[in-house]
Amino acid sequence: MGQPLEGGFPRAFAGLAGAAAWVSPWRGDSLADRLEWWKAAARMIWERPFFGWGPGSYERMSGFFHDGRLKSLFAHSFPLETAAELGVPAMVFLLAACFRRAAAMDKRFIRAGLIAVAVQSLFDFSLNVPGVFALFLAGIALGSPRPEDGPRAMPARRILAWAAAGTLLAAGAAWHWGARPWLAFLRSFEAESAYSEGRLREAETAMRRAARLDPLPARYHAGLARILEESGRTDEAVRSQAEALRRDPARSDYQRRLKEMLKP
To answer: I need a surface site. Which of 65, 132, 172, 198 has the fewest CB within 10 A?
Structure first.
């Protein structure tokens, strides 16, 4: 009699814990909030599907993709947030690697626990917490079977394929997260130099290039607004200044400048 009870208790406990984790996100207005966060993440993915907006960018960028009333650190969905920040290829690679290792586990209780966490993270931010994610990876490592004949050498073709894929991903990430912001800064510097010398057309072209290369910083849009206003194109200047304020609502000087531009 004792053995069935001992075997049944972990299953019952795991079932109750899984049910609680599954039900908790759907209470009250939580579902409506999550739908807004998921929509914002989906729109971020649509804008930059391959390399995303950069690690940790969801909190800063999500407000531009919904009405801004529901600010959140997380998208409350690990796959969506990973794809929005790092790109769809990185998300697919990460999930495929985790599930491949989990499928090969010979410790079923560890596998069941990891599956429960993974399913729950589809609708919440559990795995976006670094400590939880580290424990999740540790669980995969502990539950993975060890080959009886020792480590196996990876075929040369597979090594080359992984190296090529890693190089392409690293190059793309370096361009999107490193080179583009730096080039945008250089273009903005050129724009400021041209503006100070009265070459407004060149200044406008350079500042627009800066804003296209890196649309996040509000200062590029504010600089473009100043150039357009000096050129006598008030309506376009107002739109650029409003865009700068939308990207950085805390800037009181942007607010004051927009009010001055809107005065009759």
So the answer is: 198
